[in-house]
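Example 3.2
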Amino acid sequence: MGNNAIVGQSGGPTAVINASLAGVYESCKQRGAGKVYGMLHGVAGLMDRHIYLLDEKLKTTLDIEFLKRTPSSYLGSCRYKLPDWRGPGEKVYKQLFSYLNELDIGYFFYIGGNDSMDTIWKLSEYGRHIGSYIRFMGVPKTIDNDLMATDHTPGYGSAAKYIAVVMKELIRDATVYGTKYVTIVEIMGRNAGWLTAAAALSKADDCEGVDMICLPEIPFNVDNFVEKVARMQAEKPSIVIAVSEGVKLHDGRYVCELSDDVRPVDAFGHKSLTGTARFLANTVARKLETKTRCIELSTLQRCAGHLTSRTDITEAYQVGGAAGKAAFDGHTGMMVGIKRRSNSPYQSTTQLHPIEQVANLEKKVPLEWINEDHTGMKQEFLDYARPLIQAELTPIYIDGLPRHIYLPD
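Structure, written as tokens:
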């Protein structure tokens, strides 16, 4: 079998996805890989033979440290859906495997979420079909925290930390004037509310916390939402609300679709979701005659390297390293998951899962972790999430700014 390795990154980036890349790279080199290549823009770039020899860039320990502390996807990303190999789509696989054999690849790693695990599943199945010796491993990442078979996903802890910090700051800002004021903060999360739920972490002895949390797991009613805001504002003038971009009506439509924004669709059929907070803020302002403000955290919540959770970046590096070890130990068609051993003190380990138990599936926030009136989170969620945001990994500052590593165009 081949002696070289190749690694790619796919889907939405995170603040710690490059730590997983560093983990894969170092694990492969320690185990005797000849060359370690990076796919530029994931499997889509690989099809166009766009690769990079990582050995040429990651030469020192300092290079690795810069990589771990650099947010977003160092190798670039893509949202490309491989076709079914049983049929006309097989020509794509023949093209890919021919190129992998040309590069003498024996180990293939893909860092990503649900759709990326679909890629690993299809490639590993086709590899078995043709008797290929290439070993395919999935490395989890997603701020959405919606991957099955893992306690949580690398990337989530840092995004949750950013959300909790920003919500505390917004709450302080919103209470300055003492007048009627509704602030609605839109947080990422298509079908799972893990990120929005992290707003509950803002509550502490120095902060009253958010007043309402709206998750996609609970069907949304606009009129009921306005009524809840009115009741809350009767008791306190300034209200701060965290709402998921993916909240849906009872008929399955996204609330953001009630606006007239244009919504493009990606290769996996996912609509672009934005405008939920703006629509709700305008609705509340019109019906309650109160001042409102909408805030979209957008990509800020996934690229805030200055608020990285040390727990998160450590585990991101560990799953990358575990994937390298597993591939060299002979495993293929697997994803490395995180298994929680205890909350206090927090301890975790890694374990392997068949990729078919992960691909194209979504893990939702348990309904029993949401309070009875669907406005906040219970202690069970706080106990689950709080260990994941602990400690910090300070960026390496040069000339007053964090130093990043990147590949020039």
